[in-house]
What we know:
- With 289 residues, the chain is mostly helical.
- It folds into 2 domains: 1-63 and 232-289, no CATH class; 65-208.
- It contains 14 helices and no strands.
- The protein has helices at residues 24-29, 34-51, 54-58, 71-83, 89-102, 107-113, 116-120, 132-148, 152-163, 166-177, 200-210, 236-244, 255-268, 276-285.
- α9 crosses α10 (166-177).
- It is globular.
Amino acid sequence: MGLAKSTELTGMTNHVGFAKPTGLTCINKTALKEVEIKEIKDFLELKTRCYSKPSFVDTDPVSIPHRYSDKQDIEISGFLTATISWGQRTSIIKKAGELMQMMDDRPYEFIINSSEVELDSIDYFVYRTFNRTDCITFLKALRNIYLNHGGLEEVFCQGFSKNKSIYDAIIHFREVFFEVPHYLRTCKHVSNPAKGSAAKRINMFLRWMVRNDYNGIDFGIWDNISPQYLCCPLDLHVGNVARKLGLIQRKQNDWKAVEELTSVLKIMDPDDPVKYDIGLFGLGVFERF
Length: 289
């Protein structure tokens, strides 16, 4: 493939890194060979190390749950932040911060102690298509999960334990989440892989909770799901870079593409395949790969 090494890497937005691999068109048309996987792995290992630094947090939505130290606050703030994580990252961080302020910066205490009437009377909140009605439903659903189902980790782990499958974990979580009365329109804000969704935001949230990258990005506060079972969050940036590298053939960013990408990443690192998400994302966002 001809992956050429570069000079030393400096700065989050000014990486030169490796030159783009040559022969990408050919790779996209044929199955990846062992030697090609080795070269791409080396390339992604470097890029993942490059971006897996504490400085990454400052410009990423994961900075919101990093404001907290208690497990439940991290979970709730992380889930709500991941839910609205589409669009410009600066806007996501700003609006997620406003949502935390609405809960007095104590999300777990707010959800547990608020009555139905109090939740119905929360301040107006909207981010793109996620509006006040959606927000209230989400808070009530989280309240139900923590009061009656043992919390977010317990719900995801119950689904996961059936077949050690993230797919099943998300399906089960979605069923429990919508036990509370809700409008049909709100359902679109919890992705459904059974209908083909890539579930990018939920997979990103699970990456935050399950992985511990020891670099101050992912938290690793959930012990009952191993990182080896995670699925790679697939958005426009990750999908475009993965296709240029020949890691996925499927054109749509759907659940089948998630499985295809994750299966290749597992060849590169069976124990922690989604660590490459940060490298793929960084290539797309910061380097316009």
